[in-house]
Amino acid sequence: MRKLSKLKQWLTIGDAAQHLSIVFGETVNEADVLRLGLDGHLKLSVHFVNHTEARVGNAIPIAEAKTALSVFRTEGEEPHHIVLGIVLNDREVLNLAEDIITLDGVWDLSMIGNESLDVEHAYQNLTGGPAVTLTCLDGAFVQREDGKIFQLQSRFDEEHYKKDSKLPWGHPSFYYPAGGLPKDSVLVVRMTALAEFEKNLSLDSREKPLMTRERDNLLSLIAVLATLNYGKDEMEKPHALAKQIVQDATNKGLELSIAERALGDKLKEAATFVETKAKK
Asked: What string of DSSP letters covers 261-276?
């Protein structure tokens, strides 16, 4: 898996979960990957299998954005202006181009509109959570690796406009902001995003290394428990024993937070420690 991953530009959510499980030596599932994306730790992307339409956006400082007099105000309220465009944050506004363009391939999720709700919906489905009923009127957004944002578009039914419109089919006025990601698109994770996540997690790790005495006690405990439950002879085959432990845990409905290979390595380390200590 890891050798093939080096040849890939991106992985599906399931493959990304398997990749992270191997890297960190603990179980990571698809819901975990989606949660990492929703919480801003891991950049998620989408693969447009059959293309989709979009409008390109241009982010400008909010101070430079055009404004218009609001028609919505209560009686006695002073007239006020509203910002034209899609407000991204307290500093920027997104202005959309009129032309419709086609997107294909892999694009990063901006996580500012309905694309974020789609990911939340997928997460809730995997974890048995409630249905996501929220919506974003601004639509769904993706971005290039350089940060350029695009608003996804849907098109009105062709028959609806054949009766009334004299404009050519495909005119920008026939499009409106998409309610979410296309149904024929696939959530993925770029290999570069996984590498960045692994790097950041390594740098931000606050776990303190075990002191020598704590480590020795832990290895002794592992060796004693494994020997009591499986016998001394089995400790001489740590990776085979790890496989048996994983199988037994699964049969009893228990889920280990450590990969089989990592467990085997730890059993081998424990056996070596006990053997070395006995010779002293």
From this structure: HHHHHHHHHHHHHHHH
Partnered with residue 223 across adjacent β-strands are: none
pLDDT tier at 202, thresholds 50, 70, 90: confident
User: What number of other Cβ atoms are within 10 A of residue 131's Cβ?
Assistant: 8
| Assigned token pair, 124 | 């809730």
User: What is the model's pTM?
Assistant: 0.68
- Residue whose structure tokens are 């309905």: 114
Instruction: Report helix, strand or coil for 124.
Output: helix
Please give the single-letter amino acid code of residue 196: E
User: Taking a C-beta distance cutoff of 8 angstroms, is the pair 154, 132 a contact?
Assistant: no
The span from the CA of 65 to the CA of 55, in Å, is 18
Closest residue by Cα to residue 175 from 160, 195, 190, 197: 160
Name the burial class of residue 250, with classes exposed (0-12), middle (13-18) and buried (19+) by CB atoms within 10 angstroms of its CB. Answer: exposed
| 145 closest CA partner among 98, 91, 109, 195 | 109
How far apart, in whole angstroms, are the C-alpha atoms of residue 205 and residue 255?
A: 24
Q: What is the pLDDT of residues 56-82, one digit of tens each?
A: 999 888 888 887 777 666 666 677 777
- What is the C-alpha to C-alpha distance for residues 136 and 239, in angstroms, rounded to an integer? 51
- Cβ contact 17:29 at 8 Å: yes
Determine how β-strand 92-96 pairs with β-strand 101-109.
Answer: unpaired
Strands (E), 9-66: 10-12, 45-61
105 in the Ramachandran plot: left (φ > 0), alpha (ψ -120 to 50) or beta? left
Q: What is the pLDDT of residues 110-153, one digit of tens each?
A: 999 999 999 999 999 999 999 999 999 999 999 998 889 999 99
